[in-house]
Amino acid sequence: MRSRFDIKATNLPSLLIIDDEPIAIKNLTHLFTKEGYQVTARSTGSGGFKALEEHKFDVVITDLKMDIVDGMGILKKAQTIDPDMPVIMLTGHGSYDSVVQAMKMGAYHYLTKPYQLNEVREIVKNALELVTLKHENKKLKSHIGEAHIGPQIITQDPVTLRLLDTMKQIAPSTCSVIITGESGTGKELAARYIHANSQRNTKPFIAINCGALQEELLANELFGHEKGAFTGAHNSHQGLIETANRGTLFLDEIAEMSLNMQVKLLRVLQENEVQRLGGTKTYGINVRFFSATNRNLELEVAEGRFRQDLFYRLNVIQIHLPPLSERKGDIPLLAYHFLKKHTKTMDKEIEDFDPEVMDSLNQYGFPGNIRELENIVERAIVLSTEKKITPAQLPSSLTEHSVSVMRFNKNKLPTLDEQEIEYIKWVLDKCGGNRTKAAAILGIDRVSLWRKIKKYDIN
């Protein structure tokens, strides 16, 4: 049946709502009409199926359990029309297997009934932003005149997608880039992605970990040496800076480099030439420098551990990668990617995760970020003797207790008030908004917590 809530505006983001509960149709339509969406509502799956055939939509919200045509049928239809169309599933309790199957098939998100309207609003907003970013990505690719090349960065997270846009935009330039983020967030992968989309992509990409070598060894690796420069130097040796000529040199853990080495690197950046150890001749170079760190370089400069002039040379553009805990929607995507990758390498036939496993992954804090997720999946594949990853193959840190990590992702140290606000918000979130429980964890009474919430205007 056709809903009386259909809207005929053509310049608004379009939303299709499919649910066999009239009150759900009414509430969602009212909400998104107020938000400025072009809303089409259907009370049956077959009606929603027909609407998809007749009209173009930016986002679809559909109930999972419906007669004749269910949410899975809507999802399949939407994907045949436009693989980038986000489909949000509404489901009751006890449908976890179906939800996992829907997410595997490409559903954008799911909500368990009863849900909060504010939560639906935020998810639809993010989904619409995702659609916009994907469309902009396609336009950018057509302007560049080539499809994406190089390493694949798997994400549906709007923040990370915006970062990919930024990386593509800066790729054709020759400017230096600093990539920041916690360990395991994929800083080297991001550097390779920029290089692969640059005009230097046919030239070398060379990476070195500045924290893994002593100063003398690092200097030899970077600058090379002339014959006789030291005992055992029987031949001249070209360093990595020369080897990367016309390409890209990636300096990982740049903050671990000594001040003495920083001076030598600064000269290379200033003069575009390198002098080998034990030599007097200089060699001209054309190298693009990328560097990465999990430290706050501004703080390192302020405390005298990193040269300010070198920081300015390296920090023409800065890319900050968010931790996996801020990309929760990417966990299933990445988990299945690593499952496919490592089962192929190990020649094992494992196609799925037990629902309990995916639930544990979604609840885990991932202090080791994407690298830790890949290690967990790889370990589970090695231990598995079945067609499915089960909780028995997970490490005890996931099955016995969960790890939650509170992070400050701003590139500055927070004030005491800012830290208190963020901690209170974090604890409230972990307690599901239960103030009594939150107050107990914070070590204060409920009245004191109420006063702090009022003082800091915490929602």
How would you describe this protein?
- It is a single chain.
- The protein is an alpha/beta fold.
- A 5-stranded parallel beta sheet has the order 2-1-3-4-5, sandwiched between helices.
- It has 19 helices and 16 strands.
- 31% of the residues are buried.
- The protein is globular.
- A hairpin with a 6-residue loop joins strand 11 (273-275) and strand 12.
- The two termini are 40 Å apart.
- Helix 17 crosses helix 18 (435-442) and helix 18 packs across helix 19.
- The longest helix is centred in the first third of the chain and has 28 residues, at 117-144.
- The chain folds into 4 domains: 14-132, 3-Layer(aba) Sandwich (Rossmann fold), CATH 3.40.50.2300; 158-264 and 274-312, 3-Layer(aba) Sandwich (Rossmann fold), CATH 3.40.50.300; 324-399, Helicase, Ruva Protein, domain 3 (Orthogonal Bundle), CATH 1.10.8; 416-456, Orthogonal Bundle (Arc Repressor Mutant, subunit A), CATH 1.10.10.
